[in-house]
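Q: Structure tokens for this one, please.
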Amino acid sequence: MSVSGKRYPRSFFLQPSPVVAKKILGSYLHYVVDGDERIGKIVETEAYGVGDAACHAFRGKTPRNAILFREGGFSYVYFTYGMHYCFNISTNVEGAAEAVLVRAVEPVKGIETMRRLRPKARTDRELTSGPGRVCQAFGLTREQNAIDLIESDTLFITMGKSVPISQIAVTTRIGINVAQEYPWRFFIEGNEFVSRGKPSQPGKVIKRKRTSGG
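A: Here is the predicted structure, written as tokens:
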């Protein structure tokens, strides 16, 4: 699989989270540690935005979510359920406090390292088919929070081949108890590495639909 290495400009991440969440599909997540590079093709995302009760910034700025209030293009890594880390990308302009959760990637490089970091994964599909799995396979923790993904040579994102709108499926988000109606989960239809979680509103699944602004 070819990886171009060309990065997005800051302006790409200054767009609303649903726009970035859709457009970033097919891009590549990179993490480099002591010369060991792990790369995954982004195949599933979720958007969290302004006025969204499921967004960590909904109730205002805290030490935990402060990075979301900066301009888009920074990493936001949080710990959840007492066991998993989740990797997000801040989006929109300074103060908007939006983010895109990377829910699943397709392993491209550093797969042996990913297997070592996720020894319970029975197949390569199980390495990165969920947000907690992505962080474990890549070795991402809170130490990788607040990294500038535009400038960093350790944690960054590069462009991939644009995914046709006909190949993008849209559903409501997974694993939330509020704001369940937003159709802000995006994934590459048919990709085997997409997570198998159930949308919050299964009856409102939408496919091949453009999001506003995208």
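A few notes: Strands lie at 28-33, 36-48, 75-80, 84-91, 98-109, 155-158, 168-171, 185-188, 206-207. The longest strand covers residues 36-48.
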